[in-house]
Specification:
binds flavin-adenine dinucleotide; 9-stranded mixed sheet; FAD/NAD(P)-binding domain; alpha+beta; Putative ubiquinone biosynthesis monooxygenase COQ6-like; monooxygenase activity
Amino acid sequence: MQVWDYTGLGYTRYNARDVDADVLGCVVENKVLHKSLLSCIQNTDFQKTIHSSRLSSITFPAMSSVTSSSGTSSSASGSSAKLELDNGNSMYAKLVVGADGSKSSVRELARIQTTGWKYSQSAIICTVEHAVENFCAWQRFLPNGPIALLPIGEKFSNIVWSMDPKEAVDRNSMSEDDFVKAVNLALDDGYGPHPRSKSFEGGNVFSWLKADSTSSTHEGFEVPPKVTKLASHRMAFPLSLMHANSYASKRLVLIGDAAHTVHPLAGQGVNMGFADALCLSKVIAEGVAVGSDIGEITLLQRYESERKAANITMMAILDGFQKAYSIDFMPINVLRALAFNGAQYISPLKRKIISYASGNKLLPLFT
Ligand SMILES: Cc1cc2nc3c(=O)[nH]c(=O)nc-3n(C[C@H](O)[C@H](O)[C@H](O)COP(=O)(O)OP(=O)(O)OC[C@H]3O[C@@H](n4cnc5c(N)ncnc54)[C@H](O)[C@@H]3O)c2cc1C
């Protein structure tokens, strides 16, 4: 992976060999992930019912009835939560896991408040084709937001390009040829020069660390493979940060984007959701092992306290990055360049960044 910015002051390259791995990470399209998760569920031998319908209302035992915007209302039975679906079916559950995304109805129906703000950025996403195969992830920070080129196999890559909302409207409606030109410029020398390879090597501040250098330390800057054409529609999404004030109440937990949404600049949204799911499954298994009620708030709070702390830290880091790259001011640009070069040449730091970003290690506060 190569990360650099428009100032030409620095770049960082990460290589799977830096951490003795085969790959740094995988870019998986949402539809592929959905299909394989569904087939995993279908192939398990525990009892399951899959409803292809949407949630209309939930009633929690300790609460009065809560009703969706469609106006339906219900009441809970015994100590379970009651869920009503828009196909007329209803069910009772010891635990409701709200995994229904940033606009979570479960969160809303449970009256869980959120904290957050909108970024003055939208992201255009699309799939593009190259003339050659792309095996590398590329990210360049531009004055109005980062552009990422993420390989998805063969000669195709996905683009996630954050920018001013007005620019997003214009770039979403420009001709395909003009859009491809704009992408190639953004990933090459548009907005500023290429970083000079090895500009900080040889007698530089990091040279004393050379003995411990990683495989990618001496890799020079490369220009990403050119995009030849668009391979999908373009879609634009407004970007925001959102955090649920609480992740758990009796018979309810929130996971994934229902609990937190972040800026996509580091591609951490899905990793955070996976870490939530892993932690929740561990807590439920511990509860089941000792005969606890899996909807009990004391059990669910163990999930909340572990994940809330880790998610807030990641959100603060990503928000800090977003803000640091919203400023074009020489002293800040130099500080950012130092950070890039620190990550490029200080091998222990580089290995730690790879471990945290790939979700293999918890951030230092939580180890
Ligand atoms: C522009 C952009 C680019 C991004 N790029 C990346 C990236 O490169 N890497 C990365 O890791 N993350 C990225 N993210 C973040 C990532 O998309 C989210 O973190 C991730 O999709 C969250 O998964 P989720 O399952 O929690 O929620 P979602 O993916 O939103 O899934 C929620 C599901 O719940 C369903 N649902 C909602 N309401 C109901 C209801 N009432 N009844 C039944 N079902 C319901 C929805 O249909 C949906 O299928 C990006 C986000 C944006 C906006």
